Amino acid sequence: MQSNQYFYIMKKIALITGGNSGEYEISLKTAENIMNKIDRRFYEPYLIHLKGNEWTYTAEDGRVVEVDRNDFSLLVDGKKITFEAVFIAIHGNPGENGRLQAYFDMIGMRYTGCGMLASALTFNKFYCNLAVSSFGVPISKSLHYFKGDKIDAELVEREIQYPCFVKSCNSGSSVGVTKVHNASELASAVEEAFKYDSQLIIEKYLKGKEVTCGVARINGKIQALAITQIVTTREYYDYKSKYTDGLHDLITPAQISDDVRDKIFRYSEKLYRELACGGIVRMDYIVTADGTPYFLEVNTIPGQTAMSIVPCQIKYLGMDLTEVYSSLIEEALQNDIF
Predict the structure, then answer these.
(1) Beta pairing partners, 181
(2) 306: exposed, middle or buried (C-beta count within 10 Å: 0-12, 13-18, 19+)?
C-alpha cells in the first residue's frame, strides 16, 4: 500500500558569524539571536565562526572542526557535511563588503542578503553616496580623502563647515566616526578614521531627526517595513550609544509627517531595487526641519541583536521573526548560481 504521507528533509544551513572588524562582538550577538529563532522543523543550522584565517565549527562535544574552504564543507566523525545555503551574520569585513559573497559566488554556494557588487558598493560611504545621488535621493555634501592625502583644512572649513563628521569609508556601527566641532579637532578625527580604513569622508553636519527604514523583498515584492526614529542621550548615535542600555531610545513609527514617511518609503524601495539589494537591509536618513530626508548609508546586514532596530520593526508590524528568517533562507535557496 502506497503512503500519502510526505516527509520534509531538513536543509542544512550554515550560519556564519564573527569577522575581522570592530563589529565582531555585535556579529556574535546577531548570530546568537538568529540561531535561537531559526525554525528547527525545517532547517538544521551549523554555527560557523570566522576570524582571520580561522574558519571553524564547534561540535556539541566541544571539538573544533576546520571548514574546508574548497567547497565550504565540514568533516565530522568521518562524515562530510555540505550546506544548501549560508546565512551571513557578519557585520563589516568580510560579511558586508562583498568579499565573502565573492567567495561563495566562486564556489557556487547560495547565501542570504545582497550580492557581491551591491555589498561592495554600499559598504563604501563615498561611492555609495555617488550612486544614491544619481538616483535623485538627497545626500549631505562631503569631501573624500585617501590615506596619505593632505587634508586641506581651509577647504573643509569653506566647503563643509563646522560642525562636521569625519567617517571611515568602509566601516559600520559608527566605528571610525567622529563629530568635529572646530578646526582644532580635525587632525585627531582624521587619525582616528584612518585607523580603520584607507579612505575617509568629511561630511557636512545636518541638524534633524535621525531615522532608519528597513526594506525587504516580501512575496517577490520590494517593501519598506517601518521607519524608526533614533533618539540618543549622547551628542550623536555613536557606537557606545548603539550598544549600551539606556543611552538611546527607538521610536517606531517615527514622529514624522505622513508625507515625509511616504517619501522615505519611496526612496528606500527605489534604492533597494537600483542598488540590487537582497534580503533585509536598513537605510538611514536625517530629516531636516524642512522635511527633506537626506540619505546617510545602507546597512546590508543590519543587526539582529535584542537591541537592534530591524527586529523591533518586524515586531511592530506584527510579523514573526522566525518566519522572516525562514523567508530569507528560502529566498537564498531560490537564487540562481551563475
Answers:
(1) none
(2) exposed
- Bridge partner list, 162: none
Q: What is the pLDDT of residue 242?
A: 62
- Answer whether 319's CB lies under 8 Å from 310's CB: no
Task: Give the containing element (helix H, strand E) for 106.
Answer: helix 99-107
Closest-CA residue to 45 (of 21, 74, 13, 22): 13
| Angle made by CA atoms 172, 39, 70, in degrees to the nearest 5 | 60
Q: What gap in Å lies between CA 183 and CA 199, rounded to an integer? A: 20
Question: Can you tell me the mean pLDDT for 49-60?
Answer: 95
What pLDDT shows up at residue 232?
75
Looking up cell 521607519 gives: 227
Which range marks the domain in which residue 90 is found? 11-112
Considering the domain boundaries, does residue 249 fall inside one?
yes
Instruction: Based on the fold, state whether residues 220 and 321 are members of the same structural domain.
Output: yes
Question: The whole model's pTM is what?
Answer: 0.90
Q: 3-state class of 198 per DSSP?
A: coil
